[in-house]
Automatic annotation (TrEMBL):
The protein, known as: 3-dehydroquinate dehydratase
Origin species: Desulfurobacterium pacificum
Catalyzed reactions: 3-dehydroquinate = 3-dehydroshikimate + H2O
Coiled-coil portions: none
The gene coding this protein: aroD
Keyword terms: Amino-acid biosynthesis, Aromatic amino acid biosynthesis, Lyase, Schiff base
């Protein structure tokens, strides 16, 4: 069983709220609605002109509200906002991963610093999420399986896959492949056609679903209150 901080994955749907700053009203609302984890999109925070000390204050505030976080520093080349060298990004990871409110770190399968971040996460006792995003399409089933295997071989504690859905067949293909793989995973099909995967994905082994307050950070995300209502209907939680 995998835990991110004190949050146990796999027993029930785990809701992750993605944030791009340290707004106390969002964290208070998230706590009242039963959000389990916070994803700190550090790249979005930095893109607003916040420096390292300010990002640490965001992590402090998350801890003050009783949450553990998933730290994400998504580069521009994989849909994020961070525009720096990989060496500079690794330095940010090194300075932030040790924060006590960070329970997991998300790094891309295609990142040249993946092995460094893996060792950093292992040394600090954090869960390593290895992610892969395709914002244009959903590949064939064999390719999806190959991407997943590469992430496992890279040392992922959890594999996170996100593909863009252009048809319902894309949705069914991803769900079928994911259902056949017995390994800790998070997946979603981005875009309007794949919205359902953010709710029904748990039936196919997905451990977490990501949501937002205000402005979404990925195509097809479902707002927090709507997502909680859907999860209550599907899973009584």
């Amino acid at each position: 069983m995998i835990r991110i901080g004190t949050v146990e994955l796999g027993k029930k749907p785990v809701v992750v709220l993605s944030i791009d700053g340290g707004e106390e009203d969002k964290l208070d609302y998230a706590r009242r609605l039963g959000v389990n984890l916070i994803e700190v999109r550090g790249d979005l925070v930095i893109s607003k002109g916040v420096d390292l000390s300010g990002l640490n204050r965001v992590l402090d505030l998350i801890g003050d509200y009783g949450f553990y976080s998933v730290l994400t520093l998504r580069p521009e080349w994989e849909g994020g906002k961070l525009n720096c060298s990989e060496e500079e990004r690794l330095q940010l990871f090194e300075k932030l991963v040790k924060h006590p409110s960070v329970g997991a770190v998300d790094v891309e399968l295609r990142a040249s610093i993946l092995s460094d971040v893996r060792e950093l996460a292992k040394r600090e006792g954090k869960v390593l999420i290895v992610s892969y995003h395709d914002f244009e399409k959903t590949p064939p089933a064999e390719e999806i399986g190959g991407i997943f295997r590469r992430a496992v071989e890279a040392g992922a504690d959890i594999v996170k896959l996100a593909f863009y859905g252009n048809s319902l067949s894309d949705v069914s293909r991803v769900c079928c492949v994911m259902n056949s793989i017995d390994y800790p995973k998070v997946f979603m099909v981005m875009g309007a056609v794949g919205k359902m995967t953010r709710v029904v994905g748990f039936h196919f082994g997905s451990l977490m679903t990501y949501t937002f307050l205000g402005k979404s950070v990925a195509p097809g995300q479902i707002p927090l209150e709507e997502l909680k209502n859907l999860l209550e209907k599907f899973y009584n939680c």
